[in-house]
Amino acid sequence: MIDIHCHLIPNVDDGPSTIENSMEMISEAIKLGITSIITTPHYNKSIYRSDSVPDNFYKLKQSSRSLGVDLLLGYEVFLCTSFYDIISQKRKYTLNKSKYLLFELPFDIMPVDINNTMQKLHSEGLVPIIAHPERNKYFSKDMDKFINLIVPHCLVQLDAASIAGVYGLNVKRFTKRLISQNLVDFIASDAHRPEDYKNWYPKALENVKSWAGEEYCNKVFNSNQNIILNSY
Ligand SMILES: [Fe+2]
After folding, report:
1. Distance from Cα 41 to the centre of ligand 1, integer Å
2. Cα–ligand 1 centroid distance for 76 (angstroms)
3. 43 CA from centroid of ligand 1 (Å)
4. From ligand 1's centre to the CA of 153, what distance in Å?
5. Which pLDDT score, from 0 to 100, does residue 133 have?
6. How far is CA 122 from the centre of its chain?
7. Residue 181 — left, alpha, or beta (φ > 0 → left; ψ -120 to 50 → alpha)?
8. Which residues does residue 71 pair with via DSSP β-bridges, in sequence order?
9. In the chain, what are the domain boundaries?
10. What percent of the chain has pLDDT over 70?
11. Is 17 a residue whose pLDDT tops 80?
12. Mean pLDDT of the chain
C-alpha cells in the first residue's frame, strides 16, 4: 500500500517531536504493508513555520533508508492562508512535486469562494485533492453541498481514522456513503503518531473491504496512489 497523507517529519508541525518517534511511526506503517509514503507536513503559515521541513525530511529519509521504505515529500496545504504561495511557487508544495495538490479546508466554516479557488488551481495545471472532507461539518451535514462544490473539481481523500469511527458515528456514516457512491479516490492514514497506523489503519482497511470489496480496497489504498507516484 501507499500512504499519501501523514505527518512523519519531526518538529515541523503537530506530528512527532523526535526522530525516534518518526522512526517508530515508519516501522508501524511497514508492518501494515505500506511500501511508499508521501509525508505531508501542514503548510499553514499562521500556525507552523515550514523553514526546517526540507532539512528534517532529508535527515529522516537518510535514517529510514535501512527500513526499506520509499519516503517522499509533499504538503497538506491550508488553502485559506496559502493560496498565493501555491500559485506563485506552483509545484513546491504539491505531492512529490507532481501536479497533485493535497489541501484542507477549515473544519467549521466553509470558505465562500471554493469554486473560483478550484478553477484557478486547475488553470495553473494543478489537480486538487481534498483532504478528509468527511471531517468538514458543512459537508458531512449536507451531501448536496459536497456533490455540487467538491465532486466536479477535486479528487477526494478520506482519513483511515474517520472510517474506523474515531470522529464519531456521523463522520463514519458519511465515509460509508461516499464510498458506496464511488466518490472516493484515496484513503490515507493522516497519521500523527504510531497508534494512528497501528489502531486505525487496519480497522479502516477491514471496514472498506466489508463495505466495498477487495478490488475497491486495492484502488483506494494502492493503485490510485501509484498514479501520483508515476506522474510528473
Ligand atoms: Fe493531515
Report:
1. 7
2. 6
3. 10
4. 20
5. 97
6. 19
7. alpha
8. 37
9. 2-229
10. 100
11. yes
12. 96
